[in-house]
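Researcher: Last one for today. Full complex below.
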Amino acid sequence: DAGVTQSPTHLIKTRGQQVTLRCSPKSGHDTVSWYQQALGQGPQFIFQYYEEEERQRGNFPDRFSGHQFPNYSSELNVNALLLGDSALYLCASRLGDRPYEQYFGPGTRLTVT
Amino acid sequence: AQSVTQLDSQVPVFEEAPVELRCNYSSSVSVYLFWYVQYPNQGLQLLLKYLSGSTLVKGINGFEAEFNKSQTSFHLRKPSVHISDTAEYFCAVKVFSGYNKLIFGAGTRLAVHP
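Model: Here's the assembly. Have a good evening.
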């Protein structure tokens, strides 16, 4: 059983560019959350998707947007990249009725230069 | 609002010694409590969780944690650490209902020396 997968593993972008990160949830999971982990810090919640809709959102600007597809996979889009967007972006999945069992992917390391 | 404080940013320890990583939380509502481990260049792996019931929770890799409601703490312990336990450890909380996001502490770097 494959766990949560994310692509790409690493990414280097320039300020002002746009980036799309992808996540495939663990088999059977229908809820996907995205977290940003800056260097030396704990992960910060960006948003959560369930039934193809954004259900919860953390304190992130509208430059951060997402999408969930019918197969439950998800994308995170960041527009107008800033140097401060450099971080490890983690995707987590779970079953909608089991909020206490969340599985994380390996993350995408985004570097903005 | 909820918050998590991990009291030590780094904990150095010798192999086979016991270790305790401290976590305090603040919340006006009931929460679930978690410990995650992050090895270098990897995602987060769940070590253990407290949902309800016994306040002593056992997890993977020989770790355990004790929930103390009066002190709002959830300290992680291991009686004898191994070199392979070297990693970053995160304490996290999640409210029972409504918002389902995990709120993480800043992490504790456990460094096990031979």
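Chain A touches chain B through 24 residues (CB under 8 Å). DSSP finds no helices and eleven strands in chain A.
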